[in-house]
Design a protein that fits this description.
Blueprint: H1 3-10, H2 13-46, H3 48-51, H4 63-101
Helix pairs in contact: 2-4
């Protein structure tokens, strides 16, 4: 890539806004995922009795629905990120492209 093009992109305020918004949002979603995942792992490690408690008269324990929650939470936050990326982040990217082409 040409150096003047790189400098033009880096000097665009929309570029700085995009980098800040995307990075911050990504870190918050990463933190949320780590809390949920490691919370589940810590429950398995330190509260086996709770995880082994049966739900109702069947054979299902608390570990199964909580494990499914971790998986569904992952899908949910991925969807949240994609939705924001397809709206706000794509708009900023298009604005940067348009300014660079001009």
């Amino acid at each position: 890539m040409q150096d003047h093009l790189v400098q033009k992109i880096k000097s665009d305020p929309n570029y700085h806004k995009l980098v800040k918004a995307r990075s911050g949002y990504g870190w918050w979603l990463t933190l949320a995922m780590l809390v949920v995942y490691y919370g589940y792992i810590l429950l398995i490690a330190f509260n086996k009795e709770f995880m082994a408690t049966k739900l109702g008269a069947g054979v299902m324990t608390w570990g199964i629905p909580l494990g499914l929650f971790v998986i569904l939470f992952t899908v949910l936050i991925t969807g949240i990120y994609v939705r924001r990326a397809n709206s706000e982040f794509d708009e900023l990217t298009e604005a940067i492209k348009a300014k660079v082409k001009a």
